[in-house]
Design goal:
4-stranded antiparallel sheet, DNA-binding, globular, Arc Repressor Mutant, subunit A, 8 helices
Length: 427
Amino acid sequence: MLQQSDLIFDFASDHVNMSQLGGYSDYPAVIVEQVPHTHLLSYGVEQCESGEEETMETLVAADSLLNMDCPDTLSLEHYSQTFLPSLGDVITSPVTQVTVSAEGIVGAFDQPQWHSLHTNPPAAQLQSKKRGRKARHRRAESPTPDIIVKKDKYNKGGNTLYLWQFLMELLQDRQVCPRYIKWTNPHVGIFKLVNSKAVARLWGKHKNKPDMNYETMGRALRYYYQRGILNKVEGQRLVYQFTSLPKDMIYITDGDGIKEEDDDDHEDISGNDEAASDDSDASTVASSDQSVEEEDSHPPQKKMSCSFRGPAGHRTRAAPRLSGQREPTPRPASASLIQEQHLPIVSAEMLRTLQNLQKVQSLQPAGHASVFKTAQLLGSLCERQAAAETAVDCGGARETPDGRSHPGPKTSQVEAPQLVPLTSSHQ
DNA sequence: GATGGCCTAATTAGGACTTCCGGTGT
DNA sequence: CACACCGGAAGTCCTAATTAGGCCAT
């Protein structure tokens, strides 16, 4: 059974019947979502009694959030060749053996996995400087718009999570988004570091750099300007913009259950949640414990509303469709910028793929450990989900234990945004 | 003994930060 | 004054590519 703070990261590779997917067959493999039980993501931060506990609590939050000792969390180790069974409404695609070069992807992908939020080309095409030794192939670089890494790089078990990936992770994590980091304009990839210190500490924790601070992390972010991964939003502090986003990004928005970080965050029953200010610190995560308990007993995650978005692939978690209801929205063949499969992201929809437990059981545990984790989770949730889905059928969307949204009393359903021109610039 | 194939360890290049710094703007 | 922000410079860490060497078969 999954332990608290367990996350499941897996690619939802589908060598399954793609015909089931209809027009979605070209959807990317990486789908993103948290494990249904939000308590699995407990940040474990005690309620803040004073601002002086910021550091400790932030670090504790980082511990719990990232679960750094757990290779199953952000280590990307499951970016390997994991094949998952798929339900009809789950969009997956093969992610294995993707050979990429600076000239482009060679192999599995014939559709762009990412969409650009800019028209401007990447800033830097870093040229390797050869000296002395015989010329050799370039080492794979971070998946910047034009510089794409080999998939295999992420299979080595290293802690190779780039900062931009990390930020995307946070932006898809309801425990930190919008509390520490939030979208200010998800349509164009603009986000804000609501609590820059906490985010920096989380990053430092992940990188095993206890001295990490926003100044240092900010330097790394500034290097992203040159590489065309990020832009700075002029005139707004702590606000940055991704130049590219995965199409199946989960956008956690400030729904009814989630107040803007700058607003009064009174979801914490204890009243100690002072998550408002930028530097209020990670103690704000303490409220997660509260919410974790709530959500444990009430699987529907009422605190957020989020949606998938993409120029064509936008899907709304808040209103899950049944497999037969999905509308085949074709995906525009825009230029691939960042390979989506590099995202250390989990998918709730992937979890859904595992609902087909019979298929899961046919897998070999040795090669699909995380799959089995998921399967176990799903098995334990199966009954509840069935009940929840019944509720969906009867009364609109409710978030099921596998992460689908439910129309809880406070849940606002976020409609899938309108298609955003890829050339949209930040506002 | 020469050659070739395979495997492994060591070396090297280079990417992605990290650290430090001085400076500017709000 | 604090903080955000900028970018140069140098350093660290890690990983992939390359090379060298050993072993074995022919």
